[in-house]
Design goal:
single chain; two-stranded antiparallel sheet; 21 helices; 2 strands
């Protein structure tokens, strides 16, 4: 069957300044130069960031579960995320559009601003947090050369820590301002280099721990005395927490796949970057965590703390620079680019991609500055789950809409049209059925995180929200299946 005007013509013929600018326009196949390696490095930098390592290492210690089971849960989460992003990435490979444009098909050309803004809030939050974590690596480096200063602090940060935080904040803006190509090159060397440093750190810790390492691994692997039922619940909670960690990227994966040449390259990059990458990195995290038990009498989950304790200046320099690069890399791609697109979608004629990024950076500065003294006290896994639960229903809505309602066909011209007769205008630009599906699903998924009586559902908030969002949306929209498709003919 011949496609209508699906991909044969990605030039938008009638420019509506309230919906269009060059940053949001479909990217033509000849203008894309990402492949499997670039997608692999998106995930490499995400997993291998300082925050990613800290979360993975803490899961071995938090749930009292056998260590092999924790590893299996983390790997299973990688497989699930790979499946999820293959679904959300495919439309943008086909059409070359970013997430806030893609979501217009289901939420309406105006209603798309709701998921875009919620996604922007999540991205800005993580941008601030990751900026703080990247700054700890720079703090380590400055301290190694010049000392820690006089010890006075403000909002929990020393003078050196504040200088490091500002340096990282400015550095990221400078990289972002030079465009997506510079970010791509930054990722392509930062990702592989982190693996080299992590392996070196593991070997050093293993060598210093000596014969005591294997018994220490046994201690972590021994688990608690929990019943079979609680073991299964803990296993699933770990899976849910790890999926929630990737949640924001899962929903707006199209922001990256719009640069990829083919769907096959996207899937290969996801396979290498998720289950295989997660398995290897989790094993490294486990060995190093066990080694810190032997060497320091406590299990350390922050690589910067471990490098500081190992007391090797060459390792400190290389590790600090590498962790800084990896954390900055994923921050630029996962937490800077999406909010920049989302804010640009709000007022396309007034906010460009770069201006959206600058707004993101300014707000995120305060998030990062308050992370140590205020925000982190809430608890990392709970915060990850709560944020993921809010945006989760949009995943189900987007996937169900594209694959079951629109049958993998979108009308590019009408995605950029605010004409009342256009396919995605719905009611004054808003799809009220999608809003109802989101509201009900988000209420339930968020309650699994915030309501004590539902605490047993722990890390499942994101998956429940995504499933319910899709289910409710399909129930409300199935009778309108043919409408957008007919509009394409």
């Amino acid at each position: 069957m011949k496609e209508s005007n699906d991909v044969s013509d990605l030039d938008i013929k009638h420019i509506d300044p309230t919906l269009y600018n060059e940053d949001l326009a479909p990217l033509k196949p000849q203008d894309r130069n990402w492949g499997a390696f670039e997608i692999f490095n998106v995930w490499s930098n995400d997993i291998q960031s300082l925050f990613g390592y800290t979360l993975a290492a803490s899961l071995f210690l938090t749930y009292g579960l056998n260590g092999w089971a924790v590893m299996a849960a983390i790997i299973l989460a990688g497989v699930i995320v790979m499946f999820l992003v293959n679904l959300t990435g495919k439309p943008s490979v086909k059409y070359g559009i970013p997430f806030p444009v893609m979501v217009r098909a289901s939420m309406g050309v105006r209603g798309a601003n709701l998921p875009a803004m919620l996604r922007a809030i999540v991205g800005i939050f993580w941008y601030g947090v990751q900026t703080y974590f990247a700054s700890t690596a720079v703090t380590l480096l400055i301290t190694a050369f010049f000392g820690a200063g006089n010890g006075s602090t403000f909002l929990g940060l020393s003078g050196v820590a504040w200088v490091s935080f500002v340096i990282v904040w400015l550095f990221q803006i400078a990289i972002f301002w030079q465009g997506i190509e510079r970010i791509k090159h930054f990722l392509n060397w930062a990702g592989p280099l982190v693996y080299v440093v992590m392996l070196v750190l593991m070997i050093i810790v293993w060598y210093q721990a000596g014969s005591e390492l294997i018994p220490a691994i046994g201690t972590i692997f021994s688990g608690g005395s929990e019943t079979s039922g609680s073991s299964i619940a803990a296993f699933m909670a770990i899976v849910g927490t790890m999926v929630a960690y990737f949640a924001a990227v899962v929903i707006n994966f199209g922001d990256f796949t719009r640069f990829v040449k083919t769907e096959r390259q996207m899937k290969l990059g996801n396979l290498l970057g998720l289950p295989l990458n997660v398995a290897f990195f989790s094993f490294i995290a486990l060995i190093i965590t066990a080694g810190t038990l032997v060497l320091f009498g406590e299990a350390l989950t922050n690589p910067a703390d471990i490098v500081e304790r190992v007391d090797s200046l060459p390792l400190t320099i290389v590790a600090a620079l590498t962790f800084f690069a990896a954390t900055v890399g994923i921050n630029l791609v996962a937490n800077f680019i999406p909010p920049a697109y989302d804010l640009a979608n709000l007022f396309p004629s007034k906010i460009s991609f770069k201006m959206g990024g600058l707004i993101t950076a300014v707000i995120a500065f305060f998030v990062g500055a308050l992370w140590l003294s205020v925000i982190s006290q809430i608890g990392v896994p709970g915060f990850v789950n709560a944020l993921g639960a809010v945006v989760a229903p949009f995943y189900g809505i987007i996937v169900v809409d594209y694959y079951l309602i629109k049958r993998q066909h979108l009308n590019m011209q009408e995605l950029f049209s605010s004409a009342p007769s256009s396919a995605y205008y719905y009611v004054n630009g808003w799809n009220t059925r999608a809003l109802i599906a989101f509201g009900v699903a988000a209420l339930f998924s968020l309650s699994t995180v915030l309501v004590p009586a539902l605490s047993a559902l722990g890390g499942f908030g994101w998956m429940i929200g995504a499933a319910l969002g899709g289910l409710f949306y399909y129930g409300l929209m199935r009778q309108f299946k043919a409408l957008p498709v007919l509009a394409e003919q």
